[in-house]
Structure prediction request, 103 residues.
Amino acid sequence: MAEDCIFCKIINGEFNTEFVYENEHLVVFKDIHPKAPIHLLVVPKIHAASLNELDDKNLLGELLLGVKEVTKKIGLNSYRTVINTGKEAGQEVFHLHIHVLGK
Ligand code: 5GP
Ligand code: ZN
Prediction:
């Protein structure tokens, strides 16, 4: 849990955000400003500012498995995944997340 991290607060339940999927490693919730008809964020429960700050191979694998599990759960077979790393690449929230975009 990092102070002033919006995603840590969401994970902590501070905003009563609905989780589309959750397991011991991660949560998945809807992006507040969707850029596609389906726009989910797959977010590790531990705080890592970006992909550059996470070296845990197991957790990195779990995040991709989480993408597969949530898309299977909602019946989404075709989707795009995006990870923005660093301000210049468009990262706005500095808690690692994988965007899942679909129709
Ligand atoms: P980034 O640009 O960091 O890759 O993406 C951050 C994403 O988080 C943006 O698409 C933005 O709409 C979303 N976002 C920012 N704040 C919140 C929030 O409080 N709740 C939710 N559900 N999404 C958020
Ligand atoms: Zn955080």
